Amino acid sequence: MGHVDHVVGCLAASVVTGDETIMVEVRDWLRTVVGARGGDPTQVAAVWELLAVPLRGHPLARIHLATAPPLREPSSGDLGGDLDGGDLDEGLSGAAS
Amino acid sequence: MHPLQAEYWAALESADRVAALELVKRARVEGTSHPEIIDRLVVPAQARIGELWLSGEWDVEREHEATTINEGIVHWLGSFAPPPDPGRPLVVVACVETERHSLPALVIAEGLAGEGYRVDYLGGDPDPTHLVRAVVTTRPRAVLFSASLTSSLAGQKRVFAELRAFGIPVVVGGSAFGGDPDRALALGATAYAADLASACGCSRPCRGGSSRSRCPSRRPPTSRAPGSSSSAGCSPRAWSRGCVTAGAARRASRPGGPTSWGTSTTSWGAWPPRW
Predict the structure, then answer these.
(1) Which of B96, B150, B177, B183 to mutate to test the interface with A (most CBs of A within 10 A)?
(2) Are residues B230 and B98 in the same domain?
(3) Which of A25, A31, A68, B28 has a 20 to 30 Å separation from A16 between CA atoms?
């Protein structure tokens, strides 16, 4: 199982169990794995952005994804992704309505 | 670190299966029980293996080599158990579907066998259709599932529901469940067990169950293989202390309800998940 598959599986588990802490756990875990292997942990944000794209129309899943914001460093620049705060807020409000 | 632990770790670190086995043989001859060997050598070593993989110090191949030695040691220790008494309750132990980290399930399976249960151990990533078919045929007292990776949880609701529809309790444990019963109960499991003692408690029938399926009493010491003495956990109080059922969880959420559980050894999922 690849790391991204693991994240997707955790998102499914988070939704099915209603336990949003799962996404916090997997975000922290992925940052550790990436950082320990010489990667940039802030790039976890890119994974979250990519995940958010096919989740349009799935507000509950987006809520669970947004529970664990990817902690992008301010200096990393704007990746122009789908998980900028406003987009996630939109998902949250859409789910609540 | 105890010298025995240091020596065992050195064997795993160098992927020296023979040295690890010789050390365990020596510990056994010197009177260390099988649960003690698992609790003090195998489980802590596996936790360290997981940490080293997570930190990037060990690659997957090295981690698998050491894990395989650990698994072999548990199998070897289990080979000394006397033949199971056909009159004792049967339990099935397996990983959940897609979960291939089978050491926690193996440790629980051997622990339950040591406590007198007949155990069908199905290992990692079982086919759920075959599992349900087999379980309906053998009618075990309970099915115990282990999950280490949280990503393996989402697909389990259906098989848990199928088993429970046949009246077979589903007990779950492992690090994927996050250390409390919430995820387990949300998936429809009958109970969450944090450790071997809890698993024993959860595998007992409810009060008033038939005598045929009662929890086995401990075997007298004379019937045990050398070194196979019980861990301290499987007492009659284990149910209330370590096993959390759906009903118990609801009671626990009320003011004044029990708030803690899982106090004994042989933790189920004490190490981080590995790949």
Answers:
(1) B150
(2) yes
(3) A31
